[in-house]
Amino acid sequence: MSIDVSKMPKLGFGLMRLPENDGVIDLDHVCRMVDMYMESGMNYFDTAYVYHSGKSECVVKDALCKRYDRDKFMLATKLPAWEIKCSEDRDRIFNVQLERTGAGYFDLYLLHSIEDGSNYETYEKYDCFRWGMKKKEEGLIKHLGFSFHGSPALLKEVLDKHPEIEFVQIQLNYADWNNPIVRSGELYNILAERKIPIIVMEPIKGGTLANPADKIKDALKENIPDSTPAEAALRFVGSLDGVMTILSGMSSEDQMRENIATFTNFKKLTDSEQEGIDKAVAIMRDIALIGCTSCRYCCDGCPSSIPIPDIFRALNTVKLYNEEFRPQMFYNGVTQGKGKASDCIGCGQCEGVCPQHLNIIELMESAKEQFDSGKFSR
Fold it and tell me: Which residues constitute the domain of residue 111?
């Protein structure tokens, strides 16, 4: 049975940024937030095996499953590819999740973070799609989907190969719509054309769109005077056809209160308000970026085989969107089997052929500092 979109609330409670005291999840605070959310008439909770180092699923038991009848809420969690080393690990992880949450079953279950490379290969190697469908037949999963962090080409490939998938979760916000790494707009269009229900993650881009630069705030305020920056970001996503549920990783009662208000009497963006979003995006694009045109003249003679334009693409994404994790993962992928920024020997061959006359050696030092520190290794 396919997923009933009409029963899904527009706002989902993402449990990956829960309030903490001295590094410990504040259970009383979470319970108050759960109560506020449930009292609003919304009831979809999203967690994962790895959130809060596994503690998020445990909090689900104490804050939700022990306090509300199981048929009153919907719960989603995810299978992490990087924890799977053999076929038996699928059931081991799943059983741990059932024990941690005390949920009995999962309304939605996702293969976590499909992306180009190892994660997708792991899910295929261990036949996780068919395994998930078996769990559905057993009544332990109601609906199977995946969260996605890969390329548009990979998304098409996965959907073509696995028509059994009922929904897809993607990162989507106005800042990432044309982000050259995330490519939210392209992913959205693929899913919308196929009429596959979409769950949105990072609608406020990890909170960065809630407090953008002053120029961006002014542009939004001019065209969307009655919305906060966070509300404007949520309304942008909520105005898109085919979006089933929008997850927000709320960590305070104030955030919960504001988001509930946004979706209780939801209003799609008007044409004038959309112009405010477009202005905000234009301002982001005006930020000084590396003027690389990806001609790749610099690559042919590089003695260290460094994919210089791709590294600049990652650096530009850090500057433009004020995020580090996704560009780091992109960097790791494009330099796999090739040279890293730290492999630059400063020979100057690249600078001698660059039509844009970029200070590539200096920029490689910046890339080395940004990406080769190991701070985002997993």
Answer: 5-271
